[in-house]
Amino acid sequence: MFPTRLLRSSTVNANEIAHFSRLSAEWWNERGEFTFLHKMNPVRMQFIREKLIETAYDEQPEEAVDAKKVEVLAGLDVLDVGCGGGLLSESLARLGARTTGIDASESNIAIAQHHASLDPRLGSNLTYKHAPAESLLPQSKRYDVVCSMEVLEHVDNPAMFLKTCAELVKPSGHLFLSTISRTPLSYFLTIFMAEKVLRQISGGTHTYSKYIKPSELLEFFQSYSSHMHCTAEEQRARNDSRPWITRLYNGEPTRREAEIRGMIYNPLSASWILAPRGAWGAAECNYLFWIRKPDLDML
User: Which helix (H) or strand (E) holds 178?
Assistant: First the structure.
């Protein structure tokens, strides 16, 4: 499970927020501090759309799902946790999702709001809030999709952060994460090369000990079950102790419960590639993680 050093009651790390607040003006400079995220964003969107389309095909007759004509994100309530300057939020909103982007950095939210105001097509589909994720829990609103990209490796108490994100997902909704695995390769690429040698990223952006292995996410959701906002009587009747991941096969979850996909950077083309499902070694550095919240009717 996650390292025991992170036991605070809040997930917000003041030093991390200060670091990214200082860099907030760089968010929309495609050749600046966040160039890797700009190039990564299409791959993240590809993964999100692919999983939503795959789920739709699983649940509906094939002729009822036409991914070329119907945008699967259209009309969904989506929360982007740790939205930064809004790279992912804007992409989601442009595809019709009713998107809320939140961030613990007021400077990031200001930049995101300003950039969004330059595109009237975004309209009412995109809203930003300066807020940590846990501040949304007392509210009744829950989301069809919750995304948190390149955030998990910057928070305190990752278990609490995951529980918070999970609780904000509607029953049968989707949680998407992307983060960095804690391996010698990830240290070499993201800290030694990117920060210290090439200086493409500001020093101190990453902390190796805060990286999370895919196996740790799987272990967490094998033991995590949510109450899904039903009464005590309903919980007992439905036995909602079922974890989000019920079993692993050769270390992998079933396709309909969760999935891990590596993201590989190709320096020759200066682009990211979404690795095939199950590709050996692909998740040794950057990876995407999808998991689906169980529905009451599935229990």
Answer: strand 169-180
